[in-house]
């Protein structure tokens, strides 16, 4: 039982950054913007969060720094694609390359240093409950933030007027503009929210998952988050399920290596990425389901009439 609980806890910790980054990107894509810079924003959030936490001695300040850096990086993307109408795919890829390179330079002096870690929640009488206590009431704060974000985004997109407006922009930005909706402003807010979520996900990596700085520690999680949005058909609760499936695959390959399963470690390490490819291939075969939920204006530039 102790081993099972420990595995469940590690799966939750591994799934949390995927869930947060994917939820942020879901909002961005619902507005009709495709941001492929999630990986770059995550790694910048990771190095910024670790650096701020180490220099100030406060993991909470590190977390705020990670969110701010992710938002600022996404603002750069927003200016390029929304104000200057650059190609979203090329700009997103450039943002990822910039983030990977700049984070390596920023983090040179942090390699090998001990980091700050966010404390786990402890509620007397609840955390010590058998079986469910530690899993439900003994996690790190970002775990609870990720669940709240999922519920909040689901409520916002499908239960509020602003969420309906955002979705209408993603489906037809021209029609939304004709109705007097400020398309660019909504998309700016969506992109910055997505960047803040990516920064938070990166902060979770360096402040909870492994409280240290390692170059390229995002390890492709940003790309998996992008695939999760498609896997979930742009639905928040499906993103939650998908994140935990991928988290289980991620942790499963680590335990498989620890147990000495006679499979080359290179194959085991590639399982999360192979799972991503398999999922995308399976989804692409069902064109009706994909087209039914895909925002119609996704990736299309919008220049308002002047």
UniProtKB/TrEMBL annotation:
GO terms for molecular function: transmembrane transporter activity. Keywords: Cell membrane, Membrane, Transmembrane, Transmembrane helix. The keyword RNA-binding does not apply. It is a multi-pass membrane protein. Coiled coil: none annotated. It is found in: Cell membrane. CDD domains: TM_PBP1_transp_TpRbsC_like (cd06580). The keyword Iron-sulfur does not apply. It comes from the Bacteria. The chain crosses the membrane at residues 6-28, 33-54, 60-85, 92-113, 141-158, 188-210, 216-234, 241-261, 267-283. One of its GO terms (cellular component) is plasma membrane. PANTHER family: ABC TRANSPORTER PERMEASE PROTEIN (PTHR43370:SF2), SUGAR ABC TRANSPORTER INTEGRAL MEMBRANE PROTEIN-RELATED (PTHR43370). This is ABC transporter permease. The lineage of its organism: Bacteria, Pseudomonadati, Pseudomonadota, Alphaproteobacteria, Hyphomicrobiales.
